[in-house]
């Protein structure tokens, strides 16, 4: 076989008709021209999450800007929660119809529509003259973000080469930290601007990734799975042939992928009408729904929202009140998180999803939040400044363990758990739960920090323990197989198997005198299979 072609080897521990996707390529991706071209375009899609990261870090950075604080009359507690919480309200509203829109118009157009909405919201936010105007802009931005991160994970997961699906889908959410990093350091720079433009200027920069999306997303190849679902089979095959096989008609991967996609979609259409009840109709879908719903809530409730939106409040609580110092810590934290997140995306297939999730939670708890809780208590009760400063180190440690895995899981692990027939609905459900959790915590966090103080961290410690239990007992491993083959984990014997390999495996078994294969072949001839 040509070394430029994909090397398909049948048989994994999940069945004889599955393949190990890590064995498909014999060289690094950058040595294949067609993969360089594909991933060059996918950078445009990956950038959408930078907008979300910029937004989250922006709200942290603005709280450190004197002119922003003064303009909005130094908001604290519930009022500060309004500034952050309304973004989630916009997202929650959008998910009521996004499940339909993303299947109706496709992944690319949904992303571009979201970019337009974000630009409108950013413009209003940047020139806001009141709390109501600023909060309304936050809601509009949240709605646009929901458009983008409903469609982007689907497009990345469905168009990526099988060998790189895990890394790319995980990398999508990792770009959150890239946007956060830019916002944090730009905000530090605007501290020197002695006017309201110290915050208005950095706000305007938030529309930059959206301008890229509007300009270039149309040139990104559409999801082959969406195209097949819409009856555009030839166009879907052309995309897979060009971008996964370099245009080589003799490459076996294109027929393998097309057969899996068409067979799986046909099977899923036969099983139901695609309504919302499909999420609970079968044991496999109930399991998928549980994984997505629990992961959506737990990923936000284990402390990341507290650090991401209220770091300035946390730092003030341990005696770090200088705006420049707060901004530098925020900038360094986003840089650290970005580096650890990139590392996590790189090794996610090597170590596996479950192992990395469990290790991340263990590190967050033992090395991060428990000592953070203890040191915060010591500072509050005895005024121990060394304990207060130690909290900063534990914030970095807890954030690093989170960044290695959990930030990318929401666009990597959960999306590949979804079968095509329920994918749009589960992603919308995921966004609803993520944004609902963020919105609730954005109202709760500042109030709890103001009224309860360090004792609030005990609740986060308990949630991390709960998350560990949930992952250990209910989350399956999904690494090293194709997107369609993940269904064999959730649906078991009811999953669609690739008939191309089924026939090949049976015939090879017959030629070797395999009694089991002979029996299967005889059953097929008699019509019993």
UniProtKB/TrEMBL annotation:
GO molecular function annotation: carbohydrate:proton symporter activity
Natural source organism: Friedmanniomyces endolithicus
Keywords from the named record: Membrane, Transmembrane, Transmembrane helix, Transport
Superkingdom classification of source: Eukaryota
Pfam families cross-referenced by the UniProt entry: Sugar_tr
Protein name as it appears in the record: Major facilitator superfamily (MFS) profile domain-containing protein
PROSITE patterns xref list: MFS, SUGAR_TRANSPORT_1
All copies of domain Major facilitator superfamily (MFS) profile, residue ranges: 41-479
InterPro entries per UniProt: MFS_dom, MFS_sugar_transport-like, MFS_Sugar_Transporters, MFS_trans_sf, Sugar/inositol_transpt, Sugar_transporter_CS
Main location: membrane
Database matches in PANTHER family: MAJOR FACILITATOR SUPERFAMILY (MFS) PROFILE DOMAIN-CONTAINING PROTEIN, PLASTIDIC GLUCOSE TRANSPORTER 4
Location of the protein in the cell: Membrane
Bilayer topology annotation: Multi-pass membrane protein
Similarity comment: Belongs to the major facilitator superfamily. Sugar transporter (TC 2.A.1.1) family.
Transmembrane domains' residue ranges: 38-58, 78-102, 109-128, 134-155, 175-193, 199-220, 290-315, 327-348, 360-379, 391-414, 456-475
GO cellular component term, pick one: membrane
